[in-house]
Amino acid sequence: MGREDQIISERIKEINELKKEKINPYPAKFDKKESVNECLKSKMNAKVKTAGRLMSKRDLGKIAFAKLRDSSADIQLVFQEKNTPDKVFSFFNKYVDAGDFVGVEGEVFKTKTNEISILVKNLTILSKAILPLPEKFHGLQDDEERLRKRYLDILMNPETKELFVKKAKFWQTIRNFLIEKGFLEVETPALETSAGGAAATPFKTHHNALNMDVYLRISMGELWQKRLMVAGYDKTFEIGRQFRNEGMDMEHLQDYSQMEFYWAYADYNDGMKLVEEMYKKIAKEVLGTMKFKTHGFEVDLGKEWKKYDYKTLIKEKTGIDIHKDDDKKIKKKLDELKMEYDPKVDKWRLVDILWKYCRKTLSGPGFLINQPVELAPLAKRNAEDDRVVQQFQVIIAGTEMGNGYSELNDPLDQEERFVEQMKKKERGDTESMSHDKDFVEALKHGMPPTCGFGLSERFFAYLVDKPARECVIFPLMKP
Fold it and tell me: Alpha-carbon distance 373 to 379, whole Å?
């Protein structure tokens, strides 16, 4: 019998003995009065009643020590002959193991080494752990196991626990910021009859009750929130999950959290000002600073945000003129740069890959502007040059950290672009958009000038300098 099997056998035996003694190893409730953190802040000799998981146990004969952990902090428990009732001391020694949840009552005091502790007077078993905790230095070394058993990763690694506290703060800061700016939080459908609002491959499923195929949304309700602009709301936003049936890498996931806002009577210049303010606020709240190192870049969101012109930057870094050079010349350049591409896609998808090569060199912070109309089917054309659109992408640490534009509100132009997207889809471009006739009809009722913007949890992953998957509390794993 292996060491773990022996521990399991002993603990099951303890559970059976507790039941014989008419002690429930899994009671329904415990009247916890103080958190561990409140116990640590209590006056000396104060009586406290708290609960949590035992992380360790040391029995030295006439005295025993244990570490108790709840979501707020850790505290030392002390069991001492003459000061802890004999019945409680012997129960602790006989039936309680590291990993068990317990409730304790006792007095706060300082040990000889000045450690704030609880001298235990009473102890209640709340949940008997059958499996042992991972060893501190040997457990959960394997990344796959760590992500699969995330509950143990959080339990054993304070940094992982803190990561998800920061992530909650990240989304709460965005929500509070937008609400303070007068935006209304809305919820739009996660199941759609056509996947719109972005260039991405959707997940498809079947709706049994209506007997039709539907798609999981690929955007945070872009076409729905624009309908709300038609309906008369001035400012809306949504935070939720969206789904893209595409590749996985350091930056990309198949299901992830996204925020999108829509702001009537504003354009992309207004959007850039608001987004810069919001990103600075997020960094301050989550990190306590606007300076951070991430993915090999040193970033300072407090410095001046640059404007990068799409065509100019590609010309400077690759020698390609995106409006004059043909797809053969672009493919040749991509081959030289060792950039992978699908030879079947059209010229503008190739241009986009060229841009992604250039983007890797930019530390930011800044905004990419003047993207080609062919790559932005929902953005308003630029009045000075109708080959490009009023779009802005946040560029930080060599990647895109958010995307927005002056929304296209000309229904006839929108209809033409949807038709062109459908032609691309028929030629095999899975990322092209469907023709949403209902949305075009809504636009024909009139939509005010509007700025829209979206950001995903990729920005959080870059703030904390981790791969995107590491920042998902329970990432999808193969069984």
Answer: 8
